[in-house]
Amino acid sequence: MIYFWRFLSLFSLLNLINIVAVDGGAGMEIVWVGLIIISSILSFKKPFNYLFSHKWVKRLFWTGLSCFLVIESIIIFEGIGFNAPSHSDYLIVLGARVRGETPSLVLKERLNVAYDYLMQNPNTKAILTGGQGIGEDISEAESMKRYLEEKGITPNRLLLEDQATDTVENLTYSFKMIDSSITHPKVIVVTSRFHILRSKMIANELDWKVDGIGSGTLPFLVPTYYLRECFAVIAEFIF
């Protein structure tokens, strides 16, 4: 068990270095720092033996670890996805960070997935959702629009929602843009694989049933985003 904590300490340090190097921490820096401190302390026999000599600590640890593994399994399963239904009425492409006017790598992954679907389904429209945040010269929606237009998607197929600041607003505002004359519209949410589960949960709370198409994540950022998403899913479930 001591070796587990030593591994976790090193693993956390490497992930902290990764997110600092690429400025892609998504607010997770403090979490990795906390894990480094805790796992470093528990890497020594004396504090480890003292703490885990208490039965309630052992139970809490194994219960927490079990819950974490179950939630992560569901997140991964939902993100893998199956064949998305063709000929959907709308894609809702969730925004991500824009650097100046350029989509980040995470956002480009989502846009490439959306582009492939739009090319295969010429009657589908895309709602591009995301406002303008700190360090962004234009809204995420506008950046996405420019990217897809450059790849050949015609402007009349692209609808902009440029006010949202989080996933709840992304979906709330986007659903309002869907043509009310369409009976039971088919809607697909395009986002990163780790984000599919929570997006579906939020859509369900808004009385919408959606399918999801997940895009990939840079391998060295996978631990950070999936760990963060576990906390986000728990918070979504509770609140």
Word description of this protein:
It is a single chain. With about 240 residues, this protein is of the alpha/beta class. Helices cover about 55% and strands about 10% of the residues. The protein contains 9 helices and 7 strands. It has helices spanning about 1-20, 30-40, 45-50, 55-80, 105-120, 140-150, 165-175, 195-205, 220-239; strands spanning about 90-95, 100, 100-105, 125-130, 160, 185-190, 210-215. The strands form 2 sheets. Strands 5-4-1-6-7 form a 5-stranded parallel β-sheet. Strand 2 and strand 3 (about 100-105) form a beta hairpin. Helix 1 (about 1-20) runs antiparallel to helix 2 (about 30-40) and helix 4 packs across helix 9 (about 220-239). The longest helix has 26 residues, at about 55-80. The mean pLDDT is about 95.
